[in-house]
Amino acid sequence: MNTISLSIKDLLDDKVYGLDLKLFAGEKGLSHRLYSSRIQKPGLALTGYTEHLHPDRLQVLGNTEISYLRQIPEESAIVYIEKLCTFPISCFIVTKGLNPPAFLKKAAENAGIPLLGTPHQSSTFISLITKFLEESLLPTTHIHGVLVDVLGVGVLLLGKSGIGKSECALDLVIRGHRLVADDIIHVKKKMPAALVGQAAETIQYHMEIRGLGIINIKDLYGVSSIREKKIIDMVLELVEWDPDQEYDRLGIDDRVYTILGVELPHLMIPVRPGRNLTSIIEVAARNFLLKGMGYYSARDFHEKLLARMEVRPLGNEVE
């Protein structure tokens, strides 16, 4: 997993979140990188007190800040702004459609700090930009597998190439479940501990079935057979049947599979001729829902068995 960042130019290019930004000055700083979704209003930094300034954050200047700069003597304002611009500020953003003072534009241009403007109110813009940055800076990874929505449970199917993941997913779709992604799954971590998977845009709604080639699930089975994205709830790993391998037969011990630091329930399903994998996956999803309601079939069975062994009468051996 690489450290994710955005350039200031990415903010200008936004067409989805409605940031509606324009550039006033500091074009040569559009390559500055953002690594945090935190926003700061400079406040006292405009008076020369920069003790708690976080230059790595977006600096938002609203009506209060711009009015203050216009009301104080221009010589003092220039001194404060030039001092502020000595810090490696990532970007200034002026809200409410206000036109920044000329000395602010000049200082930003000389320091190579992008100075942007938006017509939004400060509170509205901060909400929009925070959502934009949180979505864009989420930890991400790519996984080879298949993601399906089974009874509302996000099931991630893993296994080596050719073991039958796509065929299982196709059978699940035929049974009325939904495909999210086949082959390459783009996974984002949403705080505090949720993983959201979706397909790459180029292969969305498509599956590769050996012998058939590439098929479009949306065209074949309709919009009810697909989902754009889904939270991953559990991992099912398909493995080749090994007669010398001891597989879990009770399900008492919970295994976990870690992705981006998030632990997910993990089941290993041995594959062999005659096993109905689709039904097994459906039952695994239903069992996951039961566990979410606090009912653990395997543990309940185990507790009943232990209780029965404790009350079993002794001394009935036949002489």
TrEMBL record:
Pfam families: Hpr_kinase_C (PF07475), Hpr_kinase_N (PF02603). SUPFAM superfamilies: HprK N-terminal domain-like, PEP carboxykinase-like. Residues 207-216 are annotated as: Important for the catalytic mechanism of both phosphorylation and dephosphorylation. GO terms for molecular function: ATP binding; magnesium ion binding; phosphorelay sensor kinase activity; protein serine/threonine kinase activity; protein serine/threonine/tyrosine kinase activity. It comes from the Bacteria. Its EC number is 2.7.11.-, 2.7.4.-. Mg(2+) binds at residues 166, 208. It catalyses: [HPr protein]-O-phospho-L-serine + phosphate + H(+) = [HPr protein]-L-serine + diphosphate; [HPr protein]-L-serine + ATP = [HPr protein]-O-phospho-L-serine + ADP + H(+). Residues 7-133 form the HPr(Ser) kinase/phosphorylase N-terminal domain. The active site is at residues 144, 165, 183, 249. Residues 270-275 are annotated as: Important for the catalytic mechanism of dephosphorylation. It is an enzyme of class 2 (transferase). Its cofactor is Mg(2+). Keywords: ATP-binding, Kinase, Magnesium, Metal-binding, Multifunctional enzyme, Nucleotide-binding, Serine/threonine-protein kinase, Transferase. One of its GO terms (biological process) is regulation of carbohydrate metabolic process. Signal peptide: none annotated. Residues 136-304 form the HPr kinase/phosphorylase C-terminal domain. ATP binds at residues 159-166. Both phosphorylation and phosphorolysis are carried out by the same active site and suggest a common mechanism for both reactions. Homohexamer. Belongs to the HPrK/P family. This is HPr kinase/phosphorylase. The gene is hprK.
